[in-house]
Write a structure and sequence with these properties.
The chain contains 23 helices and 27 strands. By secondary structure, the protein is α/β, with parallel strands linked by helices.
Length: 723
């Protein structure tokens, strides 16, 4: 049997699900159902990426352990997927993969060892130890190149990640490297020999020119002291595996690669059966999937994926990426409350030209549901079936028009046979299949809707209500309704992967046995609908949505949400009913410590809401080391109005250099000899090219945040710890 393996990215388990997660998962679900119809054995993976600093930080904000936090987020994601019919119980994903699974640890370690034991195409070791200094964005979980961050801020020196608009950290430490730079030629040969490896074309071109420009080696480990919530490097427990290196491997460990335990648990050779697979991703994670991942697989000697297919992003009406922090993201629970699952699926697949970005808000979804579904498909189904009930007592009439009645039929505008209609339906089927296989889902749907328009016109031109008044036109009337109903049978099959529930309902209403999900659209033949079949109960498929009422309700919900967020002092801090269900067994209850809901907007590190008790434990507090320091020297920094440079004695062998943004409020000379409070275990970072080895604490006063140094009125020795 032919097999088909499709994956979504595994989503960061630090936040509540959003539109981006929903979209890729719907596309994967759609492709799986389509392939199943075509006779493929399918395997559909989705899941969560559960390691790294960002998840550790999010769990600390929510007063949970990382494990509790990821479990809570996973529960939310699974619930959301079930609400949208994407889970196994609804015929959706086969595995919800988690990178914290022990079998993944085993497989990832095996992968590392294999890559380490082999050589690059240029005959050098794949993995080597070096020293890394770079800008690291925790929300992205990646090191950033110069062009991926803003220039240093004139005052603070901070550089912001262009995606998250949050400061990146300067990280400098011992690290293992993957020799990606040796893979440029091998990758270019791959893109050349397999033009379909990266889809769509525009993304392929992007990657080819990136790789032509040369590749740099990638740091693939962090010191355990920097990132502890991660997989240990095999044979070197002081290091943990870089989260992207770990995460990408999930696509094969899920199939049992590298883990006897997983293979035994599954009881079959999933890897042999399903690999290579198709990776569906957003275009923002193209480099990792189309460059790093194939190079990693080449390094470990594992077969490459079938394809990497990148979609565009959902934007708000002003063209900004939907984000909880900006408050412009659609809320999935609101979406679910007001629209049917099939209407959302249809919208997602119809609206976005796959590969390009697309604007979305609640209103465009509603408009499409009303025009294309209620007014288009739904209306055609209900008018056809209602007339079969009314004129033929619920039994599907025959398509034949006897010889002697053909002239009369012709006068009413009805052909003696259905050849023309049937051949346009065949053409539409061809276009549909070709476009689906080409990832042009919007075009596939467009072509299906041309058929709806055509049959609608056919009915309106034939005027069945007039034919019904003439007994001599009984067969003509029957033929008109048969043709409409047979078209609907075809559409139920073609559209099944898009709208599983509604098409099943059409199927049943047409009195069909079997399952449209197991009917291959390529095998459909005109005339498959048996005359005499009794149609089922006629149920409205897509009731028209009252736009004024629904939009008013949605706007009210959005307003309430905003107010709630403002009162909590943080956009995106709350996630309504969805979020409060995220409490984890064993974590504090609402009356003790109200657990902060996981943040929605996958990669956003939103600050905890004010006024909500997000306590840290003593264990968290003791991680911050604060000491008394004496300012030995203080001076201004050329070209900086804000920064002062100090040397401060913390009772250590050497005084430290520390920078502080207080130059507008203090004369440096007056600070010499002053005892201050210093955070002494803060990771060193560079400001204006100078390393700062700690932070001087100050109160922030008034609207403009005037700094007032924390100081001591009694005599204290340098280096004394603040507790
Ligand atoms: N954990 C990594 C993926 C590792 S795969 C081995 C990750 N996770 S994520 O949760 O941040 O993002 C997952 C997906 O959501 C990405 O494909 C990303 O493109 C997608 N989206 C996030 N916001 C989006 C939109 N506004 N629109 C469409 N998809 C977007 O990256």
């Amino acid at each position: 049997m032919k097999s088909f393996y499709v994956t979504t990215p595994i989503y960061y388990a630090n936040s509540l699900p959003h539109m981006g997660h929903l979209y890729t998962t719907v596309v994967a679900d759609f492709l799986t159902r389509y392939r199943r119809q075509r006779g493929f054995e399918t395997y559909f993976l989705t899941g969560t990426d559960e390691h790294g600093t960002n998840i550790e930080r999010a769990s600390a904000r929510a007063a949970r352990t990382p494990r509790e936090h990821v479990d809570a987020v996973v529960a939310e994601l699974k619930k959301m997927f079930a609400d949208f019919g994407l889970d196994g119980a609804h015929g959706g994903y086969d595995i919800f993969m988690r990178t914290t699974e022990p079998f993944h640890y085993e497989g990832a370690a095996e992968f590392w060892r294999r890559a380490a034991a082999r050589q690059t195409p240029k005959g050098r070791e794949n993995i080597y130890k070096g020293f890394y200094e770079g800008l690291f964005c925790a929300p992205c979980g990646t090191f950033k190149t110069e062009d991926e961050v803003t220039p240093a801020d004139a005052e603070s020196g901070a550089r912001l990640c262009l995606i998250h608009e949050r400061p990146v950290d300067m990280v400098s430490e011992e690290s293992y490297f993957f020799r990606l730079s040796d893979y440029d030629e091998a990758l270019l040969a791959l893109y050349e020999s397999r033009p379909d490896f990266i889809r769509p074309e525009v993304r392929r071109n992007e990657v080819v020119s990136l790789v032509r420009g040369g590749l740099q080696d990638v740091s693939i480990s962090r010191l355990k002291t920097s990132v502890s919530w991660a997989i240990p490097v095999p044979g070197d427990p002081d290091h943990t595996v870089y989260i992207w290196f770990d995460a990408l491997i999930n696509y094969i460990t899920a199939l049992g690669w590298g883990s006897d335990e997983r293979r035994a648990a599954v009881g079959e050779d999933l890897f042999g059966k399903f690999w290579p697979g198709v990776h569906l991703i957003g275009k923002d994670i193209l480099r990792q999937h189309a460059v790093l991942w194939p190079a990693m697989l080449l390094a470990a000697g594992v077969e490459l994926p079938r394809a990497v297919v990148a979609h565009g992003l959902w934007l708000d009406q002003t063209g900004r990426k939907g984000s909880k922090t900006l408050g412009n993201a659609l809320e999935l629970p609101t979406l679910r409350r007001h629209y049917s699952v099939d209407a959302v699926r249809y919208f997602l697949l119809r609206e976005m030209s796959f590969g390009q970005d697309c604007k979305v808000d609640y209103e465009v979804i509603l408009d499409r549901a009303n025009s294309d579904l209620a007014g288009g498909l739904g209306n055609l189904v209900s008018r056809t079936l209602t007339m079969i009930r009314k004129y033929f007592d619920g039994a599907v009439p025959a398509d034949d028009i006897p010889e002697e009645r053909r002239l009369q039929a012709k006068r009413a505008g009805v052909d003696s046979d259905a050849v023309e209609l049937a051949s346009s339906l065949e053409l539409v089927r061809e276009q549909f299949i070709r476009n689906v296989e080409d990832y042009a889902f919007h075009r596939a749907l467009e072509s299906a809707w041309t058929m709806i328009a055509r049959v609608d016109k056919f009915i309106s031109d034939a005027k069945p209500w007039e034919l019904a008044r003439d007994e001599a036109q009984r067969e003509t009337l029957g033929a008109v309704l048969y043709r409409a109903a047979e078209t609907l049978r075809w559409l139920a099959v073609l559209l099944h992967p898009v709208m599983p529930e509604s098409t099943r309902s059409v199927w049943q209403q047409l009195g069909q046995a079997g399952d449209p999900g197991r009917t291959d659209p390529a095998e459909l033949k005109w005339g498959g609908l048996a005359a005499g079949a009794r149609i089922g109960e006629v149920a409205p498929l897509f009731p028209r949505i009252d736009k004024a009422k629904t939009m008013a309700e949605i706007e009210k919900e959005v307003e309430q949400k905003k107010e709630q967020q403002q009162s909590q002092g943080s956009p995106g801090a709350s996630s309504g009913t969805h979020a409060t269900q995220a409490a984890v067994p064993g974590s504090p209850t609402a009356t003790e410590v109200k657990p902060e809901p996981p943040q929605q907007g996958a990669t956003e590190a939103t600050p905890p809401p004010e006024g909500v008790a997000t306590f840290i434990t003593i264990d968290d507090f003791v991680k911050v080391e604060m000491r008394v320091g004496e300012i030995l020297t203080a001076e201004r920094i050329p070209k900086s109005d804000k920064l002062l440079k100090f040397t401060i004695d913390l009772g250590e062998a050497e005084p430290r250099q520390i920078l502080a943004g207080i130059a507008e409020h203090y004369e440096p000379e007056k600070l010499v000899g002053r005892k201050v409070a210093v955070v002494s275990n803060l990771k060193p970072r560079k400001l204006r090219g100078l390393e700062s080895q700690g932070m001087v604490l100050a109160a922030s006063v008034g609207e403009e945040g005037r700094p007032v140094l924390a100081t001591f009125t009694e005599d204290v020795p340098n280096g004394a710890r603040l507790k």
